[in-house]
Amino acid sequence: MTIYICFFAPCIEEFCFRYLLIPLNLSTRFTFIGAIISITSFASLHMIGDFTNYFALINYSIMSISFVLSYLITKDIWQNIANHIFWNTMLLISNGFLSTIFVEAISVLPYN
Fold it and tell me: What is the pLDDT of residues 30-61, one digit of tens each?
């Protein structure tokens, strides 16, 4: 599961949400429309099952905007894939690290 989250998912998501949806060789209008579709579909897909978590929706929207801007500036899907892999890996490490600290902190509390 870790390999999928860190490597395969970013490759698939960047290819689908950036490379296919944002036409770099067409007019600015089509690029803008593709960027809006990319941002909304990326954020929505990550919110499946929990549309009431507005903090997560804002987080995924900001992340998607940054990926779209990176793709529009560099015009390189591989740079976006590397950014996405880095993001997912850091998130996985930090969640594992923070949850371990939280579990250890809870375990030393006295029970009443």
Answer: 889 999 999 999 988 888 777 677 888 888 89
With a CB cutoff of 8 Å and minimum separation 6, the contacts of 17 are 38, 41, 42, 64, 67
- Other Cβ atoms less than 10 A from the Cβ of 41: the count is 14
| pLDDT tens figures, 85-106 | 999 888 888 877 666 555 555 5
Tell me the one-letter amino acid at 20.
L
| Range 73-77, long-range pairs (CB < 8 A, 24+ positions) | 75/24, 77/14, 77/15, 77/18, 77/19
pTM exceeds 0.90: no
